[in-house]
Amino acid sequence: MLKGRTRLHPLPVVAIVLSTIALAFLLSGCLWGVVKDVSTDAPIAGASVTYTDSEGHTKTATTNANGIYSFDIANGKNPAAGAVSFEITASGYEPKSAARLVQYNDNANATGADLSSFWEIQGFTLVPTAAEPAQIVFSSARDGNNEIYVMDADGGGQTRLTNNPALDDFPSWSPDRSQIAFHSNRDGNFEVYVIDADGGGLTRLTTDAADDGQPTWSPDGSKIAFTSNRDGNYEIYVMNADGTGQTRLTNNAAYDADPAWSPSGSKIAFTSDRDGNFEVYVMNTNGSGQTNLTGSAGEDSLPAWSPDGSEIAFTSGRDGNNEIYVMDDSGGGQANLTNRPAQERHPTWSPDGSQIAFNSSRDGNLEIYVMDDNGSDQMRLTHNGAADYAADW
Predict the structure, then answer these.
(1) pLDDT (tens digit per residue) in 133-159
(2) Which of 86, 106, 126 is the last residue of a domain?
(3) Domain tally, the chain
(4) Going by fewer Cβ within 10 Å, which terminus of the chain is more open, N or C?
């Protein structure tokens, strides 16, 4: 027990604290509020709140780390009481316009029990800006030789990124979508190159006398897996994203190709004919634990991980022609998604996992198509007489 002292009870403490906050706002801001994300209710820092009041006054405040803004009252009530229009903007959010009626409590006897009498509270919520659908990068021979192109997810905006008489092929987006890796024989044999997303900044990453190709990025963007025959047959290699540290992962007399990095960064799927026919395998990123996933009598190749890592799409010839299949990441649940008499190859998932793009010869030549992840709503994206193929989304 405390002796000779007065116990400070919780409720008076709360009242004192709230009264102090109210006084602080009374001295520093007449109108204040919080700007939040409409979906998560999280405060938005750095939002701009601009008002225009009934007297034509305009002023702007910026929210702090807690999403709070306030307006100074040193020169009177800001904004003036009455109808006030607000414009609220923040990076990554849709701008918002709002009309509010602002009133102030002029009761000089207001106490901490009625905190609203010290200031006018105007809160706002903002809607996140809808992300633009990710573009698809692909190879096309429409201009006489194979070049790298990019297009919107609906097939619009098809744009050529590379322009030389060599073959540029097998493009792959970097995880942040700022760069594209691909292989090209522009220097005499196939090597791995990288360009910026707009086609600039060409950089050669491999410089071996053998063929290097089929690059694929690690999820963190620090490494690139690729295929090379520098040791006499095609094997899977890995290197740093700047081309250094090239290391062999597979080592057998068979053909190993088509590397695909798992979203977790812990596995690499690939194609191999080491068991007599082409199958999809998976291994750890150091080359250990190489395991056959498909185990079919047909030819299986070109694996592509779903964004959540739970499924792998791949090409299979087990039904007499190449079709797009999907399976669990452990090899179970193998299912045909396309079911067409044409040649369907090279699947790639949309970033949200809801769709799969692929190339098909169903309309007479190779074109790029898209379908839902269950195989429905198959739709053609490219339309020209040349071959469009090897898409990466």
Answers:
(1) 799 999 999 999 999 999 999 999 999
(2) 126
(3) 2
(4) N
